[in-house]
């Protein structure tokens, strides 16, 4: 019998359960891997927004990292919310220390509600400390604009230009996500080794999209941990997430932007 793969999420906690560590664990579980976690921040959060962020001290982040890596073999690591320079450096040090592989960085900067989650002084540290260690970075349109200093992309050409700039001189791949765009289809661009690949899915009309970025990057990490190639991992994760968004209205969670239905393939559908 082949053992089930393990994946690690290093991110902030969402007390409402729709994004962050909670969404990561759900997404990884739904996509067939065992999920462990390192918590970088605690948020007081629900579907209406974020009210308080409590950063976990860097030494405790390092202690969590040591604890899981010393005991568990991970096929992939997903990085989410890292709001401070000290946090970014602690995470980067841990990745280097344990030679982590298949690292997927979701540069979480702003919550779906519009609340800021990444401080301005951390952006450069994110690019200099973490991106060189990554296999893939997954900014949405607004995050890609902030990383490049360019206007929010509204065409394939602009998405391509920003993906190329983010990749820079490193060997990492970039997935610019088009979910915040317009049109009948949601198009994501994978830029890898100077080549592009587009992934499209029907745009679904629902307000319940809380945690989509966290969930997609975690699903990609799950499939990388299971041995998929990067393009295949992106394809499988996007197909799963499209189904999770399509089934989101089956849930009844909160008064604002609800979560996607991570277990739409596993739970019985309401009739």
Summarize the structure.
With 271 residues, the protein is α/β, with parallel strands linked by helices.
Please provide a written account of the structure.
- By secondary structure, the protein is an alpha/beta fold.
- The protein has helices at residues 20-30, 58-71, 85-97, 120-130, 141-148, 156-167, 212-225, 230-246, and strands spanning 6-14, 34-46, 49-55, 76-79, 103-105, 136-137, 173-176, 185-192, 195-202.
- It has a single domain, classed as UDP-N-acetylmuramoyl-L-alanine:D-glutamate ligase.
- The chain has eight helices and nine strands.
- The protein has a nine-stranded mixed beta sheet with strand order 3-2-1-4-5-6-7-8-9.
- The protein starts with 5 loop residues before the first strand and ends in a 25-residue tail after the last helix.
- The mean pLDDT is 91.
Can you give keywords for this protein?
globular; 271 residues; 9 strands; 37% helix; UDP-N-acetylmuramoyl-L-alanine:D-glutamate ligase
Rg, Å, rounded? 17 Å
Largest sheet: 9 strands, mixed
List unreliable stretches of 5+ residues: none
Task: Output the CATH homologous superfamily.
Answer: Ribokinase
- Known CATH architecture: 3-Layer(aba) Sandwich
How many distinct domains? 1
Order of helices and strands: EHEEHEHEHEHHEEEHH
Report the count of strand segments.
9
Strand order of the largest sheet: 3-2-1-4-5-6-7-8-9
Remind me, CATH topology? UDP-N-acetylmuramoyl-L-alanine:D-glutamate ligase
Strand content: 15-25%
